[in-house]
Design a protein that fits this description.
The complex is a heterodimer of chains A (about 200) and B (about 150). Chain A is an all-alpha fold and about 200 residues long. Chain A is about 75% helix and about 0% strand. The chains are: A mainly alpha (about 200), B mainly alpha (about 150).
Chain lengths: ~200, ~150
């Protein structure tokens, strides 16, 4: 536990240092900052947008705002750099959905590679992934967001509340409702999930 | 379902959620971000677009890559001749020069020149997007403003 906290503290310190440099338009620091956060932001954006092109656009826009507004990150405001950029990503996703109703489809072409699995297992895993994507995509937006930040990004409820501009209680409630809903949607295929990871 | 039952099955549900894995983004995404943010030009061939000055064409819904691909679609998609802009066009923040595209019938260079290496999947996606946008009045008005 101490070790995890220490690593987290170190990561925060590195992020803060990089952001300070980015605010002075240091390109190497920006390059490093992107490397540290690109995959994580992409995974958030992908789960919010459900397709690669939109997710990459969201990540690009997030990083553009970081480049332009790094000086606005407020160390004394209490938010970590990580929650600050997650908030930016979240806001961009919300804006994007408000502006358009285009392509609400799930992108199912991008399938995970599972080298070494039998063809049957691969089919099973793909089916499991599709079902989960569909179930998550059908959730109300705020429930979906709570699941993404708390389950997938492992944020605490209070961090998720900060990113979502909500309260801890509200996030807890969203998580319970989301999980109940997902449970109901996926329960009928439970055997598929129990076998998929093996 | 009671809370007790739900908690008991939560582990199973978490396992199910973990099936929604994510692959890595496109290998050139970081480069695109750096170029877009810092204004540096790309040295190697790739997804590129050139815009001359003048009237701006912006589509806030689209990110740079989609805007570039859409601009390309406007020029290259069969049957889209009627929507090829004849006025100078600029799309978002673009970082690269590209060869001019000529107007098919006259051979005159179009003042929008867009070249992008996009996959068949992206091309189909752009085509679908283009036609869906064409159905929207706002988009038609935007285009009329360009013609």
């Amino acid at each position: 536990m101490f070790k995890e906290a220490q690593i987290s503290k170190n990561n925060n310190a590195i992020d803060e240092e990089l952001i300070a440099l980015v605010s002075k338009k240091d390109k190497r620091a920006f390059d490093e900052f992107i490397s540290r956060h690109l995959n994580m932001l992409y995974s958030i954006a992908y789960r919010m947008q459900m397709n690669r092109a939109d997710a990459e656009d969201v990540v690009q826009e997030t990083m553009m705002r970081v480049w332009q507004n790094a000086h606005m990150w407020d160390r004394d405001g209490g938010a970590s750099v990580r929650t600050w950029i997650y908030t930016i990503t979240h806001n961009i996703c919300i804006d994007s959905k408000r502006k358009t109703t285009r392509r609400p489809h799930l992108e199912l072409l991008e399938e995970p590679e599972d080298k070494g699995l039998s063809a049957d297992k691969l089919v099973q895993k793909k089916q499991a992934r599709r079902l989960v994507m569909e179930a998550i995509n059908e959730l109300p937006e705020n429930q979906k967001t709570a699941i993404i930040f708390c389950h997938y990004q492992k944020l605490s409820n209070s961090e998720a509340a900060e990113v979502m501009g909500s309260t801890v209680k509200a996030v807890e409630s969203l998580l319970v409702r989301a999980k109940k809903s997902l449970f109901d949607k996926l329960e009928g295929k439970r055997s598929l999930f129990e076998g998929a990871g093996q | 379902m009671t809370k007790k039952e739900f908690d008991k099955d939560n582990a199973w549900l978490n396992k199910a959620l973990d099936e929604f894995t994510i692959e890595r983004p496109s290998p050139d995404l970081k480069g695109r971000i750096l170029r877009a943010a810092t204004g540096e030009k790309r040295q190697e061939p790739g997804r590129v677009i050139q815009f001359t000055g003048g009237k701006k064409f912006t589509w806030p819904v689209l990110g740079t890559s989609m805007a570039a691909a859409l601009a390309l679609a406007l020029v290259l998609i069969p049957g889209s001749d009627t929507v090829v802009p004849t006025a100078p066009v600029e799309v978002a923040a673009i970082t690269e020069q590209a060869p001019l595209v000529t107007e098919p019938e006259t051979g005159n260079p179009l003042e929008i020149a867009a070249v992008a290496e996009i996959s068949e999947q992206e091309e189909a996606e752009v085509e679908e997007l283009l036609y869906s946008l064409l159905e929207e009045q706002a988009f038609e008005e935007e285009l009329l403003g360009l013609l």
